[in-house]
Amino acid sequence: MIAVAAGTNRIDPYLIPALDGVAYGLLVFVAASGLVFCFGVANILNLAHGLLYAIGGYTAAALLDGGWASLALALAVGVLAAAAAGVLLAGLLTPVATGNHLSQALLTFGVALAGGSLLVAGFGPDNPQVQVPAALEGSVMVAGHRYAAYRLVFIVVAAVLAAALYLVVRRTRAGMLVRAAVDDPEMVACLGVSPARIRAGVLAAAGALAGAAGVLGAPIIGPGTGTADTVLLLSLVVVVLGGLGSMAGTLLAALAIGEIQTLGVALLPSAAPFLLFAAMAAVLAVRARGLAGRWRAA
Amino acid sequence: MPLITPWRSRALTAALLAAVLTTSTACGDDAPGTSAGGSIKIGLLASLSGTYQAVGTEIRDGFQLYLDTHDGKLGGRQVDLIVADEGNGAQTAVPAATKLLKQDRVSALTGIVGGGSVAGVTPVLNETKVPLVGSNGRPELKDVSRVWHTSYLSDEPGAAIAQHVRDNVKGSVYAIGPDYQGGWDELRGFTDAFGKIGGKLANADGKTTFTPFPATTNFLPYFARIKASGAAAVYTFYAGSAAVDFVKQYAQSEIKDIPLYAAGFLTEGGVLNAQGEAARDIYSVLNYSPDLDNAENRAFVAAWKAKHDGSPTTYALASYDAAAVLDRAIGAAGSDPTPEAINTAIGKLGQIASPRGTWQFSTTTHSPVQKWYLRQVRQDGRALSNTVVGDLATVGR
Fold first, then answer.
1. Max Cα distance, chain A (Å)
2. Which residues in chain B have their CB less than 8 angstroms from residue A53's CB?
3. Contact at CB, B15 and A20, closer than 8 angstroms
4. ipTM of the complex
């Protein structure tokens, strides 16, 4: 059932949900890309990925005071802390055989539980308040609709992050190694690049991405006791929908999730509880590889 | 090509994990108190861990405050208070309550945050013939012979504010709330009473919009529908982190100028601090506000502020009143205050003086017949606080 809006334009009421879907989707993309990297490149199933996001979120809540300097500081601290947590995870994972998903899942899930408890012990059980810079606190008019200024700016920032990520993967030596490791891990090992180093590097990068998403996305998916689970769940759905090998697939899946969660809910509120998982089940049923095929080139 | 490629299997692993993660588990453990001879044992069950930790802590502290301000005595007897953790629901609450009732053999039970926990504990109460003076959650119960509540029934806030909304809003009202028992009850209370006095809902099908709970963290899609509906006001009920998300997003959305009416929990206690400026001007209905002007309340708020940061909430008040009820009932139960005698005495208490104003137990539901207040979030010194702006209906049956 699609409700027909009063007035001349029936698309009009859905403009803001559609725009918000882009913001939400880009956040999911930045948050999930780290997990996709880990899983796709280093073949590590990191169930503590949501925890890395939560570290960023709590950092934002603790450091943001309404000024721009605090945002920069929170971003730096959040990225470093989450990246450090990623390296720590890589160290813990050293004895676990690559590709042994059950052991990895148990280990990282244990870390996620322990880390989540530590965060709650440190920051309290209530969802902390996140104070964005005062200039972004208000709302702006978009095509005659009011929309949160922060989310609008977030769309731009997240798009820049996504583009930067693409360029790093496509154009830098690190990116080449990462892509090579997707295609032929043995050959990369033969080239003299230690798998342990790739593992640590990939987990650090994943942590940095999750940390950045956690800090910047704190006003959208805020820090709290359930944050780590929410983000991990969304990231896993991205893996299912978008497959593992391609950034394009990940982006497409993340944007699809964003639109399903906002535009989909606005169009079909009665289906809201299961819309996301119905979409996931449909994609799995039709195409177990996800929306995009295995990606090598672009 | 193998039937299952390595990363197809990974995608399936991810799908399985996603499925597993949608159901979460929780655990809690008890903290048994010590017992001393010659005193009366009271069991307090509240969620000291898990989702409702904040509410559970308020309930424990409210009861403790009454004891601290009354020489640790109820009805002239030294109280041996045994506190146990309710956890997240009946699953953890029932074992904890069973221990209090059967092993510690308490004379009365109090507290309990979740309605589901109360429903789970009730059979054990009837088996052990011990009264419960509950201070928060109250489900539909067939047999309330041993169950008393100092809080409210979930549909009462909405029923109490309906007339005010009808009188002050020119146009239709959009009703929206969380999709679980508490949300259904809260919203039904409003929509039933509002409909009876000729109020019209702005919702597309004339029915309340329910959002998935607790999954909904982004309310923007719903706000778009409210905008399109042309509603003149919104009535809602959310609590905890959902209340923070709802209020903060509302203030930045395209419907920020539409007046927001709510059951008081939307802006009660810690959530108001988290909402900050976004909560300003929201109207809510509740049975208590810390700025009520009566002698009991002034003493209560002063005693609370001496021990805690911030003002007491309705949760702490209900627990404080549960202690007051037990105080008078144990005193009236005579030289041998057995659980049965206490239960009978509670039924004969009549008017109870309280920081919320005088109230009494309904003879049919065993929950308060009490006055409800209209509050608005306003500046109070340096902080925002719920300020009473008027009296609403006296509700109870």
1. 66
2. none
3. no
4. 0.76
